[in-house]
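Record format v2
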Amino acid sequence: MAIKGVLRASMMQVRVLNIEDSVKFYRDILGLEEVCRTEDGRVCFKGYDEFDHHTFTIRLADKPGLDFLAFKVSCPKALDEIEEQTKAFGLDYEVIEANTDQPGYGKRLAVQLPTGHRIDLFAEVEMAENHPDLHNPDIWPGGKQPKGVGATMVDHALLFGPNSAEAVRYMKEVMGLGVAEVARTPDGKADACTWLTGSNRPHDVAVLEFDQPGKIHHLAFKLNSWTEVGRAADILTINNVMIDAGPMRHGITRGYTIYFFDPSGNRCELFAGGYAYYPDMPVRVWDFDQLGKGIFYYDRKLKENYLEVIT
Amino acid sequence: MAIKGVLRASMMQVRVLNIEDSVKFYRDILGLEEVCRTEDGRVCFKGYDEFDHHTFTIRLADKPGLDFLAFKVSCPKALDEIEEQTKAFGLDYEVIEANTDQPGYGKRLAVQLPTGHRIDLFAEVEMAENHPDLHNPDIWPGGKQPKGVGATMVDHALLFGPNSAEAVRYMKEVMGLGVAEVARTPDGKADACTWLTGSNRPHDVAVLEFDQPGKIHHLAFKLNSWTEVGRAADILTINNVMIDAGPMRHGITRGYTIYFFDPSGNRCELFAGGYAYYPDMPVRVWDFDQLGKGIFYYDRKLKENYLEVIT
Amino acid sequence: MAIKGVLRASMMQVRVLNIEDSVKFYRDILGLEEVCRTEDGRVCFKGYDEFDHHTFTIRLADKPGLDFLAFKVSCPKALDEIEEQTKAFGLDYEVIEANTDQPGYGKRLAVQLPTGHRIDLFAEVEMAENHPDLHNPDIWPGGKQPKGVGATMVDHALLFGPNSAEAVRYMKEVMGLGVAEVARTPDGKADACTWLTGSNRPHDVAVLEFDQPGKIHHLAFKLNSWTEVGRAADILTINNVMIDAGPMRHGITRGYTIYFFDPSGNRCELFAGGYAYYPDMPVRVWDFDQLGKGIFYYDRKLKENYLEVIT
Amino acid sequence: MAIKGVLRASMMQVRVLNIEDSVKFYRDILGLEEVCRTEDGRVCFKGYDEFDHHTFTIRLADKPGLDFLAFKVSCPKALDEIEEQTKAFGLDYEVIEANTDQPGYGKRLAVQLPTGHRIDLFAEVEMAENHPDLHNPDIWPGGKQPKGVGATMVDHALLFGPNSAEAVRYMKEVMGLGVAEVARTPDGKADACTWLTGSNRPHDVAVLEFDQPGKIHHLAFKLNSWTEVGRAADILTINNVMIDAGPMRHGITRGYTIYFFDPSGNRCELFAGGYAYYPDMPVRVWDFDQLGKGIFYYDRKLKENYLEVIT
């Protein structure tokens, strides 16, 4: 099989301050489908173009942030190998049995990164009821036009934390991710930020060196085009969602983007385009003083507070 | 590494009836860069978003068609494994030494498919001089706006020939390609057409059962969006290129497309979008009588002669 | 006032074979708002970007077609002048008093064209309840995302009938419309088709010489862009609407277009773009044998039956 | 004629600090055609979709800014009426004879507005050599793909100056422009800014009350779509043009926009879309504290210095 091992960042659980406000936001504005609610009050969603049972869970908490980012693995055997290598690498992990906290999900490894983040890895999950058509398929499941901005699927997250080099080494050596781009530290001697990917996406996850552990800068869903990003800007605006930046383009990944905040203050991104990464591509390197262009390609300077407002 | 083995359909050599007319077409209208000419008069091109030395070669001949479609493999070791497995599978192949017919290319296996097509596989090739930027990269190499329709890279080809089931078996078992979609025969007992992919592209190659060997329906280059497909229609039209179908959408792959003919009668496609394929996706299945919707999603019927005009 | 007299084709009444199927089509798929129903069972609609009470009325009948196309005039005085000139020109007309058949509408002149069509002219109409915002306006009325394909407003109609030169003369001399483009007859001695406009639209109405009176080729609503035309193709397709041609571009007007049929067989168009016409522009002239390119700009040939299937 | 009197803002002369840098900017990046140079060293340009001899002139000066904005009038008789009414209104004006400073132009009235700006009005101008096709027209003149960002034509300018209410009164009463939108002063008792239009454009000119006379905020050229605005952002960026704001949408006009600076510091805009204005539309009114949303629809706040950096 040409793609094997880790396939993609495919699922995440996020903390919110109010469940119903968040449901309105993620379901009615972002257009995710509400799949189910758990006994402990969490709500599970999915994008219209996803096959997995659900891919996005919100949990009531007293501060926002990311509980974990989960990667799907091609098969149970590959997951076993990752477990072996995680042990050998020396990171702590926990095994979460099937169908415990995430309905429909098989066994997960919950790995503790040295940046303070939790990465889950799993190989098995039930197919969602409303999955994309498989027989003489229409472009939208069941012939239904997507709602709101029409987020298609989970795309990636940007993690902020200490010991990022070690986390990146784990992602490369154990998870098998490729490095698409790096941004150097000001002295040029190390990487301040690394963009990693499991297959052709320009990134499934990025990690930035930061003094506080376990923080996220943003979590991202995928759209199909610059035009959909522009339409999302219209829809976010008429719904009074606070937009942080964009619509614009990244120099890094070349993707189109808009950043905005969910009702709990989690920064979200809608991301479209970008090049198709392949492992025969050299790493693209950004000097620290060019990060402005890397992130805000058109403005060519970092927006104030861009690196400070995190959850 | 998450993607390994065969990466993508990355290069092809095509027969044309007139070199200079073809250069004007592929360079000035499709926007490929002319990289070099060989001593025997062939011309080598590449798209602006490709790193490899060249990816598209035209050769003067007395009838149009495809000499071979080449797939890039992740590393020489993977190529060696494919050679072993090709032997075991029982297909004839030839080894083409580095830097013989294709400048800058390493060793290639030229495999003879039972459909009458030649598939080349290679792991090594020099990097093109005008490759995408790697240091503080701009979105276009060297800050230059792409020309013509701005074809970005080789995307796929649709092969017509006999014994397609056996060719598909080789692509799955030896090349490790995944099957994204199939169209059943009228009796529903076999596959009339199969769409296969090495990574997230919805297809790198498709194979249709046909009584004459070694034919191609079309060769495709990649664009970035529906908007670029529309703009391509404008540019093709003002250049009097004969358009065969589109701009439109495929049901199969969900990609946006326009078909047209090069000056020698080779049908070309500009293809954009489509879903991101992952090997955890079930195969999408088309009934034979729904192929019209599969290919001409908006018209929902096959255009006359669509399956007959081939080279 | 820079624009005065006839402003635009702003309203039409169309015959349908089934009211409820038509309501589903025009309201749920095209995205028009159902404004009201009349005592005699007609249903009145409007686009989200229109201020007038309603702009599109359907009436149950035993065959499809257009009852009348109505043009809005800048003021009652201008309407009086048009009445005087219509008398002088010698066309029959009727005065329809305010609030008779069309709720909310002021007095209309119903002019009988020599092509067998009825053109209404009016200056006064009540403002719709759901009109575009006027105070710190959002881009969509009341902050609500348009439904279905999101048709914005009535745009134009293409009339087929005899004595078209005389109808065109009335439109120019009495209605004050400008001629944007003409297509010559095969012998080049007369105009087979004329595109006329009240202001910057490339056409508000077109008239083609035809042997049967009172026919329409299509009625058109406006979209905003090529991208919206493409999205409309997606939405029409998943709703099993029969698409006649497009998405494509016209050479005439340079507009983007898709043609399809309502449930009664009326050909509809969604039209976007096109140049901004001004009366200082020379008339653009098409030879008869170039009409294919004029209408099907990318295919450069008339689609079979294009000029035959009419209502 | 449905549109008569003033047709549109169709021409302007701008001051630049360096002719050759400006030629590179307006010709190679914005894509205007260089039409001719005058004996006194000015350079005349036009957009590919304009019929008039030239529509944009640059003049070497020691500070940037706008010499005049010119409006085309439907016919000499209408120009004579405007001259009469200008006298009656009491504004100073000068008559510039044909073919003096602007090659190919007929007689112009150069009217001195109380805001310190000069508005020219003219009815006659030679047709440009490279005008849009008139016989079986292609979408681009002579079948040539537009260069750079492909600016189509002059669109509008935003003027800053004192006595704006009086300037607006002149534009309404003498020039016959319609008021599409106004922004109120903080106390709500007057208009801080007024957007005026000659026909369906949402604005041909806007006037903002300001203490210094004769200033401009920006001069604008027209693009066709949001997608072209995004592509312009790409092209401006790779050419190191300083982008001031956008790509984004205005609440006012609903148009898509990007602001940037020419090499002399003149703020330019590329503007696309916006609603079609008709004189039967009520004026849209913005409260002063909502101007942020009016101009920066997605951010909903004024960008720092937006109202201060002017020329």
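The two ends of chain D are 38 Å apart (CA to CA).
Chain D has five helices and 17 strands.
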